[in-house]
Structures are given as structure tokens and as C-alpha cells.
Amino acid sequence: MPDRAPQPVDRLLPTDEARDLISLVRDIAQHEIAPKAAEEEGAGHFPREVFTLLSRTGLLGLPYASEHGGADQPYEVYLQVLEELAAARLTVGLGVSVHTLSSYALATYGTKEQRVEHLPAMLGGGLLGAYCLSEPSSGSDAASLRTRAVRDGEDWVITGTKAWITHGGVADFYTVMARTGEEGPRGITAFLVPADAEGVSAAAPEKKMGMKGSPTAQVHFDGVRVPDSRRIGDEGQGFAIALSALDSGRLGIAACAIGVAQAALDEAVGYATGRQQFGRPIADFQGLRFMLADMATQIEAGRSLYLAAARLRDAGRPFAKQAAMAKLHCTDTAMKVTVDAVQVLGGYGYTADFPAERYMREAKVLQIVEGTNQIQRMVIARHLAGPETR
Question: 0.90 exceeded by the pTM?
Fold first, then answer.
């Protein structure tokens, strides 16, 4: 049995434009992203030049309106673009998802004047965003955040520290949730803060097990003054905006997880069909064949789940429960598939000479970001059985 080269995912896309878009993304992934992924991840290099290219080609604003620099693509298509990018390098796929999340508040809740002023540069002008909700003492309990914004005439003065911020220190703008009123979720307001505003700084990036090319850092706001024109939505609406953004962002994480899992499966299949033991390819052995079959089945199930949620979103129907399910299933699948891929490669899977170990390290963070998978189970259960009694 000859070794098999990975085959592109056979996608059911809604338009010829979407098929051309996926073809463009695959070309960029093959020639600009994948060849440098292992070396740059090992060196902790953030590929800003790739994000500049993606912005220039219109790939940083896919699900947003073309009148503001977006591409008018449905989430069904946008998420499959994310999957392709994440399969080539998670730092890039997740980075695009985070940028989309960071642009969501202004694109969805901003005034017409705000959208006209800011969105073209955010979506197609080379800027890169970061989303600032979590803090050192408030992760899953995001409504207890302490970063405060105090009104001073026509300005707001923001003081506090955000934690676990993807693109912290390299972003051009931060979407920041800060407390402007009472304790709890009703006292939080959203702001668009330029990264070069006086008083904005970032700590050294966290030293992580994976995704070393994607900086994750605390971001400090030390009396940062922003005009009221950079407040997004109404005062006290910020937490609702944050949760709405996360419903969509979780679908981005799900798509990225399936991309990583698909890359790991492709690596495992290629190795298993080429590696000879006992006079034949190891893919001939039933135990290993069944592993590959289970990996492929779980990936396909995850892809179907995130696409079903995306189609609900595109139709304007509620999708929060399905987004939580997709995030939960797809990221758990990525973890299981990448562990199995390392096992298929045996000793080689444990070395940095092959990408399987990198996929395994990267998959872990997807079970944590944008709501841990324990939080996703809580969200799903609330949809099924109602809020918890206290």
C-alpha cells in the first residue's frame, strides 16, 4: 500500500464566490503559512506579516458588511476559512478569530458614525485587534471584573489590568469591558481603546506550552483617557455585548479546533500508510485502522456541528446553545485526535521533528479559551433545564 498525501477537505459551499475564497485561502496557507509554521512557533515568532497579507486580501473582515470594509460572507463560509487557516497554523487561525471577536462589538452595537469612522481600518486597513474581558481575578466569573472607567466630562478614564489577552502588546486596538456602575453584569460598559493611547502597556508575554508564536499577555490601563465617542453601546450594556460576542467567538474556536484535528489526522494517515513494520504498512493493522476511522468520524461530526450552529446564526435564529455544544465537542475532539495522532507516530510523534506533538500542545488551549469546556456544559444545561437554583 503506497503512502497517501493528505486530501483537501471536500466542502459543500453555498456559492461560487465561496469556493473561490476557499481556494485562495488554501493557496495562502500552503505557500505563506504552513512552510514557516514549525520554525516560527519554535522561535516564538508572531507572524504580523501574515496578518497584513490577510488584511490586504480581505480575509480579516469576512463576516462583516462590505460597506465598512468587510466581505459580506455568511458565518458558514467564514468558519470554514478559519478551519483552513488553523490547519496550517493555529496562531493564524485563532488570531483571525480573535480579531473578528474584537471587531464584533463596534460592528454590531456601534453607531453609524462609529462604524464609518473606525471599521474600514479595523477590517481591511491593516489593523489587528484584541478582546479584553478576562482579568487576573475574574476569568470564568467575568461579571466580577474590576477594571474601572470613570466619567470625566466628555471623556472616560480607564484603570485596571486585563489578563490572558491574545495579541496583547501587538494589537492596534483593544475592545475593553470596564466597570462604569454597580457591581455585577449590569455595571459594565464596552470601549474601543487605541493601543497607542497614553497609559496603555503590556506585560511580557506568558510562557505557554503551545501557540508560542501568538503573544498572550496582561494589558495594563493606567488612567487611559478615551472620549465618550469610543464608548460602544449604552452604559451598562457591556456585559451583554461581551456575551453576544462570545457566542459567535465560540464558533470560531470550534472551527479552529477542527482545523488542528484535521491536520493531525492528515499527519497520522500519511505516516501510517508510509511506515513499514513486519513487512507491511502499519495502516494494514486493524487496531490502527480503527483509530484512524474514529478520528475521522469525530472530526466530521464536529465540522457538521459547528456548521449547523453557523447556519442558525446566518438565518437570524438563536444559536447560543449550539455554539456552546460546538465549542465543547470540537475542542474535546481536537484534544483526543491529536493525542491519538502522537500515538500513531509512536516515538516519532513525541519529537519536534514531526508536527503531531505541536498539534497536541496547541489543542489543549482550545478547551480553555473563550469559556472553558466546563462553562460550556453549564451553558448547555441552562438551556435544557433552566438557571441553577440558589
Answer: yes
